[in-house]
Amino acid sequence: MARGLLVGIALWGAIIGWAAPVVELGVERFVASHAERLRGKGVAVLTHAAARLPDGRLSLELLVQHFRVVAVWAPEHGFWGTVPAGVPVQDDTILGLPVYSLYGARRRPSAELFRGVEGVIVDLQDVGIRPFTYLSTLVLVMDACAERGVPVYVLDRPNPLGGIVVEGAVLDTAYRSFVGMLPIPYRHGCTLGELARMLNAEGWLPSSSHGTPRRCSLEVVPLRGWRRQMVWEDTGLPWFPPSPNVPTPTAARAMLLTGILGEMGLWSVGIGTATPFQWLGAPGFPAGAVVERVRQRMAELGVVVGTGRFVPSAGPYARQECHGIFFAPRPSAEARFLEAFVVLLEALWQQSPQLCQQLTPKAQDMLRKVLGSEAALRALCRGESLREWLEKGLGEFQRLRQRYSLYQ
Fold it and tell me: Containing H/E element for 389?
């Protein structure tokens, strides 16, 4: 009878789409392997509420049970992931511990944050694109730890976009900023653990006063069971939003389609709706004409499109009815979402070739940073294709990536 009940539960789980996790997280493996090794040592934890265990508990709760956690450090959006993009985050408390913001008055941990700290544990859920700032915070934390001889433990998590496709030019470091610190592609196809290994070994941490690259004492605790062809839905893990506008894995995929367009400030990309980044529109926007141009090619690249209307509560055209395009990116690790963005951009420029003249200097500066290239910004503003930008430097990066890959 018990066996029959278990079979029934499994069948019902299959019907409703529930599945047990097939991926063991870095944090789970870290507790098993390091609890005794670090017993009694004071540690700080760089984390947030998106870093969860398979049962939904905060990763931090497990770490507090097994280690002497003396402080929590939080990235952009704050520990709870509720602070809007670009808004400074205040210090806080959680589980009786101080939470020090690394996205406000300080972005690099100061000397005072290292009092009583003998190691730094990093457990962050990234979204797999260069401009998402958790990678930049990791760079600055590793640099500060290298300066003080404090070891860093990066507990790996899946890249929700998968690890096969790499798209978008490698960053020109002349345009390094907090939305792009490393010479990696826009869509890099790596986990944070792999990137930590790469930046440490390649000497990409900020240089010391003597001009020599710093390297920290780094240990990456890999996932078990994750494969590069997996998207988030394949992992069996629960999704908790890493930022206010990435409520679902679909939104993470859609960021590749509309995130750069959103920086232009000319349209709404659905911020302030239930489906952020899945819309592109404005009052009177010629959605039908644009969709006619792009539907077939975008479907081939992994994106289904349709027209509709929406009313955003924030951003451009807040509280106005917008005519728009709705994007349904497929959950595929082989879909080429950034190439679909380039197809969409070409159609927008064919429809309205003077659009770039409406960009503010602030928007142009942000575009330069997220594209990581002055040449790409010039091409965009001349109405030229960004297809060259899609591929620039990728061959060399792919060869580099193989040296630091942790997964097949």
Answer: helix 387-391
